[in-house]
Amino acid sequence: MKVYSGSEIRNVALAGHNDTGKTTLVSQFLFNTGATTRMGRIEDGTTTTDFDQDEIELITASDYLQRHPRVQEVDLSFSSWGAEGYGKVWLNGGNAGIYRHQHFAERRMERLARDFPIAEGATKEALDQAARELLLAQSSDWAFIVTNATSVPYAIKRLREHLVRFHRLAEMVENAAPVPAEIAAMRERDPIFPWLDYRVFAPEPQARRTA
Fold this sequence. Notes:
There is one protein chain. By secondary structure, the protein is mostly helical. It has two domains: 6-67, no CATH class; 84-201, Families 57/38 glycoside transferase, middle domain (immunoglobulin/albumin-binding domain-like, Up-down Bundle), CATH 1.20.1430. Helix content is 45%, strand content 0%. The chain has helices at residues 22-32, 61-67, 97-115, 121-137, 140-148, 152-174, 180-189.
């Protein structure tokens, strides 16, 4: 009979009748050789080789999460792909001034979405375009470019243009004086997200005023 060294062995078969201790024996082997850190128990379902086809079910990830919505909870630390692994690229002394203008526009957009929950016609078109202009103004590219000092005048110009158009659209809505031709020109210039509905910025569903 040929003798094989341990380095040449890839598969081992352990055969026997039911309830003869195969699973327990393998668990003991694995534990004694250091392959596992503890002895598995059939009763606990923690053995390595205990398998029953009736216990296995093919299922999609979404179906599993529907049955077990809380599988594991973790607290994620803030991190990014940027330099040093956090937000230094996007928030620092060189670009911090951008954010007060963005936040002011964000709060104005939230008020508009709250106060005009069922806008129609030109008013809705103005609000939808205002949402697009705000998203473009919020682009992280502008702060990134300022930090890396690559095309700073371009970044500042783009940020200002989107904010100016946003506030012009907001003014139209607030004064109940939308200008369809002006709105169409802005939409043609910045047609990103054609499906966007301004209501995504609504802080709450309750309506205060209709237009």
